[in-house]
Amino acid sequence: MLANRLKKARKRKKITQQEVADALNFSRQSLSKWENGTGTPNIETLKKLSAFYELSIADLTKEEQTENKVTISKNADESWLLAIIMIISIPIAPFGLLTLPMVFSRNTKNNVFYKWINVFVMLVLSFNLYVFYSHLKRFFITETASSLLETVC
């Protein structure tokens, strides 16, 4: 990104924004905008900056594609992990309820399986609640039936 490259080039020379602005005859505020990414220099200013920093215009403006690929692969790996955790959690009732908050918080829209993971979260939640309901129902029915038998006998 141009903003990051301009800032790195200036810091590598160990000079301030004001010194660069004075040397190239533009305002410090303009340089600040360019380094923060809120503005973009015109081609003539870009030529001056590249000459001053001793970098080519291509070096200043090239995109950092490798970082994007790493981010995509990291999200893909995390999506797979979250999906596997949810699939494993479906039949294991207590494990499912314990993993739900972690999976739900880690699932972002950048993940490849974002929608599928949300579907799995709902399935795990529904199944786990059903299992706990059936256990509680069986416990209370057993308690109630035994107390009725004791009062009758």
Automatic annotation (TrEMBL):
PROSITE patterns: HTH_CROC1. It comes from the Bacteria. GO terms for molecular function: DNA binding. Keywords: DNA-binding, Membrane, Transmembrane, Transmembrane helix. It holds the Pfam family HTH_3. The chain crosses the membrane at residues 80-104, 116-133. Residues 6-60 form the HTH cro/C1-type domain. InterPro entries: Cro/C1-type_HTH, Lambda_DNA-bd_dom_sf. The keyword Ubl conjugation does not apply. CDD domains: HTH_XRE. This is Putative Transcriptional regulator. It comes from Brochothrix thermosphacta.
